[in-house]
Amino acid sequence: MKSIKTIFFALALGAAAVSCSGDKKKGIDYNQFKTEVKLTAEQEKSFNEITAKYQQLQEQNFQAAKAQGGNMDRIALGIKNEELRAQQSIEMATVLDGPQMEKFNKFVDENSRKRPRYDNALLERIKTEAQLSEDEFKVVNAANDAFEKAFNDAHDVYHGNNDLAKEYWEKFDTQRKAAIQKALSPEHYMKFEAIVKDVQFKGRK
């Protein structure tokens, strides 16, 4: 089995070695959500306070990452933003009712920039449904991490160009799958392919 480290570098070296200045994105427009869901005056007050709080925290994380100089660690920033969204959801659940909360979580999910990788829920499906051994699953994780790093390292090359970003995503996805295929048995890889068949590039928000 090809070593995890070898797989990682084979993917990561595919990205252009460029510095990333770190662009500031607009973020989620929560005013749009308020046009879709009717809130009471009290709910709206708390809603505005919570969303403003977490937007400020996200901006602080962004500025801290940007201030490091050199290549911005977009993976670490993405992890922090995921954690903030989870915390925001917990706090928002004290304000919104069940149906409103379901719509809020869906709205945030659809309008947030996701980390370009198989997420934890999908990884768990891959491990369970494809019946992977621990060694096989380690390779899947390593290839997935390498894919994310390679795509983020090329950010300055494709920034602002969704067509080019899609080309890079597909290139690194092909390499990710090739690395995984070498480590999995044919039967396990066939199951893996069926699970990830709908995973495609999504335009950068």
UniProtKB/TrEMBL annotation:
PROSITE patterns: PROKAR_LIPOPROTEIN (PS51257). It comes from the Bacteria. This is Lipoprotein.
